[in-house]
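Customer escalation, tier 2.

The customer says the design service returned an amino acid string that "doesn't look like it belongs to this structure." They asked us to rerun it and document both sides in this ticket. The original structure tokens are below, unchanged.
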């Protein structure tokens, strides 16, 4: 089956594995999520065995919710470097995966075909098939969650790279000698334009007892450890100026990185997804403004659109399910 062909009909399970959760959904051939299940990743134990068991548990719950309807496969979108064999997690900055044979480990516990991809590759596929990237020949997704993931599609094909690890845009260095990153390097883009960066900057104001952080402190009863990205977004939407400024700063860094990606890859559309993108124009407005200022050849070249993801946080699991459905059709 060619890349441009629509996958076969049938239900599939999509699993999105992030730094803090395992989320799953039962997805139909139109990309609709019929039912959902979720497990939080324990803070103190993100070992491969623990995460694998959470995945199995989510799949079991979704199969029960399917009520006996046929499921053609399980697609896994994993936050990590996925080898070209699409079976092995080479490295995951936010989880304890190091050359982990995840597909084989799951295949022995799930009586369904399993396919694995990077979570952002799954998300860019989902947005191309069902969301903000429909009809675009050169599409790039930037996924803002715990870190930053990325995916690139050209003419209906996900570009995975020679070793399967393309799209790790979050680990481009944007500040030499900057913030230490979980990947081991310093100054990575995700240290300035991700959910973790947003929360870190807000907590630094809170722990400094800045009067600018009063509203945020009130929202967590004075405990900075209770602050989350969604709470900051909520505060900004309620008009808290500090939260607005924090999101604008993240947006500015987002625009810097997107301008670099445009110089390298020249896509027609950037789709911005992940949990932080829920801030909408509070984030994307500053990103678009900075992108316009930083774009190489600005004023003399076409400028890519920056669009919000239409599938929201579920782009990864929808895309993973659709890729599993596509693989199932190819086996027939």
């Amino acid at each position: 089956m060619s890349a441009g062909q629509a996958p076969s009909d049938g239900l599939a399970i999509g699993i999105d594995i992030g730094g803090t959760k395992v989320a799953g959904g039962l997805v139909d051939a139109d990309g609709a999520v019929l039912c959902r299940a979720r497990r939080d990743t324990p803070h103190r134990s993100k070992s491969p065995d623990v995460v694998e068991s959470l995945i199995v548990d989510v799949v079991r719950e979704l199969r029960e919710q399917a009520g006996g309807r046929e499921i053609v496969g399980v697609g896994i979108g994993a936050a990590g470097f996925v080898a070209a064999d699409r079976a092995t997690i080479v490295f995951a900055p936010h989880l304890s995966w190091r050359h982990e044979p995840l597909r084989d480990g799951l295949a022995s516990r799930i009586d369904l075909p399993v396919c694995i991809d990077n979570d952002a590759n799954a998300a860019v596929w989902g947005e191309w098939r069902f969301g903000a990237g429909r009809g675009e020949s050169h599409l790039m997704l930037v996924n803002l969650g715990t870190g930053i993931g990325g995916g690139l599609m050209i003419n209906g094909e996900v570009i995975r790279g020679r070793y399967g690890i393309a799209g790790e845009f979050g680990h481009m260095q944007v500040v030499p000698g900057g913030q230490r990153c979980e990947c081991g390097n310093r100054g990575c883009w995700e240290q300035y334009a991700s959910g973790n960066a947003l929360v870190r900057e807000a907590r630094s104001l809170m722990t400094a007892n800045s009067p600018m952080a009063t509203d945020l402190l009130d929202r967590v009863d004075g405990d900075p450890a209770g602050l989350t990205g969604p709470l900051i977004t909520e505060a900004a939407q309620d008009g808290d100026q500090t939260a607005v400024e924090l999101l604008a700063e993240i947006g500015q860094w987002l625009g810097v990185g997107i301008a670099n990606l445009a110089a390298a890859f020249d896509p027609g559309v950037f789709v911005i997804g992940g949990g932080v993108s829920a801030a909408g124009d509070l984030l994307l407005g500053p990103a678009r403004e900075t992108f316009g200022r930083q774009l190489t050849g600005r004023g003399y070249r076409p400028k890519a659109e920056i669009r919000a993801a239409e599938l929201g946080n579920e782009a990864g699991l929808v895309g993973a399910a659709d890729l599993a459905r596509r693989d199932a059709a190819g086996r027939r």
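Tier 2 assessment: The sequence is consistent with the input. DSSP finds nine helices and 13 strands in the chain. Residues 1-7 have pLDDT under 50 and may be disordered. Sent an explanation to the customer and offered a walkthrough call.
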